[in-house]
Amino acid sequence: MVARLVDPLLIILAGPTASGKTSLSLHLAERLNGEIISCDSVAVYREFEIGTAKPSREERARLPHHMIDIAAPDEEVTAGEYARQARASLNEIRNRGKLPIVVGGTGLYLRALINGLFAGPERSQELRAKLRSKANMGGEELHRVLSRLDPEAAAKIHANDTPKLIRAIEVCLLAGERMSEMWQRGRDPLTGFRILRIGLDPLRSDLYKRINWRCVRMFERGLVEETRELLKRYRPPDFDTEMDSRLVAKALGSLGYRQAVALFRGELTLPECIDAAQQGHRNYAKRQMTWFRREPEVQWSAGSGDDEEVQREILSWVNKHL
Q1: How far is the CA of 259 from the CAs of 42, 212, 280, in angstroms?
Q2: Which of 167, 182, 297, 305 is the most buried (most CB within 10 A)?
Q3: CATH code of the domain occupying 9-117+189-205+296-321
């Protein structure tokens, strides 16, 4: 009788910001001969350190990490590009006989990695510039355009979600067909792995305390100074100062950096800046949990990833699947 080959295991660690995913991933990887793949849309950029809550350089030195610092600040890493590179890393880890552990809170990137994305046309910067100018007239204008081109897609995208509206219109115009029809033709799901999805779901009050503390620590560690240096090289095009304007970094619009930029623009005081960053991260955590609760077959742990009891519980879950 021929033994049936079993696909290797892939661990997905999901959860909101500040829920202890990094601590848990290190705990598991060091005990299970694992390597870590980051799933974070800002951690992919070099030079963005303090505001991203990347694993520290000391933590990264403990075992291999992937998909961190893979792009220059003025490049753009789409969900599709992330999925392509992350899948290559998955295969390399599997070929070395190691356990891959995907860790992060960017739901779209995770979905692209696991489920794949439809094969839409390449982006057109010229078309996008025209659509962004329409967006300045109000999100409703773009939504009306999409409603004429693809009513089904428009029904699923909020009128204020400018990036998704632009992409949907772009697909319709460049591909010559509706984006909703391309959705229905299917995607390119990841194969060759048994996937164990694990989610962290700390008490809301505990999570918010952790978020507030982390934001304060970011500013204490020098987030304002880091943002100042980034602005010298990669400022937003509408930043009205004498700073160098040759390059643009999309990640300057991410949480923490966005509030620090507002500080330099004179729109916020430092205390207001910290308060706004805390509120922004708390709102983001809510959106993350809404997204992850829609994901199938997630085993949820009601605690933080740096809690020893939670670590023991989840290590036991993983060992049952190895």
Answers
A1: 15, 14, 9
A2: 305
A3: 3.40.50.300
**Structure tokens that stand for 50 in this block:** 């303090």
CA distance 17 to 31: 24
pLDDT at residue 123, as a whole number: 76
Neighbour count for residue 77 (Cβ, 10 Å): 19
Task: Give tens-digit pLDDT for 97-147.
Answer: 999 999 999 998 999 999 887 666 777 888 888 888 877 766 588 888 989
pLDDT attached to residue 76:
83
What is residue 270's three-state secondary structure?
helix
Domain range summary for the chain, segments of one domain joined by +: 9-117+189-205+296-321, 125-184, 212-284
Output the pLDDT for position 245. 44
**Nearest alpha carbon to residue 292 among 17, 9, 8, 10:** 17
Q: How many whole angstroms from its chain centre is CA 201? A: 18
pLDDT, tens only, 62-72: 999 999 999 99
The closest of 22, 18, 194, 187 to 115, measured between CA atoms, is 187
Using CA atoms, how far apart are residues 1 and 190, in angstroms rounded to an integer? 29
pLDDT at site 238: 60
Concatenate the DSSP letters of all residues of 46-67 into one string.
Answer: TT--GGGTPPPHHHHHHS-EES
Pick the CATH number of 125-184 from 1.10.20.140, 3.30.40.230, 1.20.1050.80, 3.30.70.420: 1.10.20.140
The DSSP string of 114-173 is HH----PPPP-HHHHHHHHHHHTT-HHHHHHHHHHH-HHHHHHS-TT-HHHHHHHHHHHH
- Please identify every stretch of the chain with a pLDDT value under 50, giving residue numbers as ranges: 1-2, 242-247
Cβ within 8 Å of residue 156, ≥6 positions away:
180
Amino acid symbol at 196 = L
